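Run log, item B.
One chain of 308 residues. Sequence copied directly from the ordering sheet:
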Amino acid sequence: MKLLIGVVHVLIALGMPILMVGLVNRTKALWAGRKGPRLMQLGWDLLRLLRKQPVFSVVATPLFRTGAWVVLAASMLAAMIAPILGSIAPLEFRHDFIFFTYTLALARIFLMLSAMDVGSSFEGMGAAREASFTAFVEPALFLLVGAASVATGQSSFAGLIGHLHQAESFRWLAAPAVAVLFVLLQAEASRVPVDDPLTHLELTMVHEVMVLDHSGPELAAMQYAAALKMTIYAGLIAALLNPFDPLSAPLACVLASLFTMAGVAVAVGCVESLVARLRMSLVPRYLMLASAVAALCLGGAGWLEGSR
């Protein structure tokens, strides 16, 4: 059964990014009164890019050419650790959440290195913003993991997230934990209000300015990796809220996770339709707010478990 659940996990992790982006775009189109693109439009765009011949800068080194694939591979590896179906993940071991965090950090490093490798001042500016903004992501995630560890006593990522709903303090921690994960999704996937994936003004871009020189298959890898990061955090929210055990009720667990992830995509689209992007100076404060909420979760979990 665990092998079958692992296969389903891989299929969801690799297939949902295309649907997630489609749901976000269709939600934004509905708010704007437009028909919008098809749900699977990202898949067709990726296929189109894979058939194109890439164009490289004359100053680019092999680091630029391999950076996109390292970003994609690291994001896929992180997706295999993230427990999107609850208490089980294909790659699960003690304290694997540390490996998960720094796998995403490795992807971020190669994203910034490949951006700076072409010698563009605009891409260097985007890399600097990426480094400064996402520095606030890791504290929020580790504080949230600490709260889950206090509440559950588990040591693996799947155990922490998948069993949190069984803890006595879950009803107090669920809402703030979901809010923190939603903010981390916006930061890691470069979504509004942290970043705007549709902007074309270099002075205001973060992620998009770093991939300006990518084309063809390399650009497809970068776009898919960004969608995969959004799917990872949507899967963590789904695992946190999923009341079904993947071993005793696998079908109900899979359906609940899929519907929750789809709901997160709709929520992302609603936020991007109703909220403007934050000014650059306000983005660190927004991410620090997530860390503060995660710290309150940790303090609240410690107090609730200590009072039992």
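Observations after the first pass:
- The chain has one domain: 2-306.
- The longest helix spans residues 2-32.
Flagged for discussion on Thursday.
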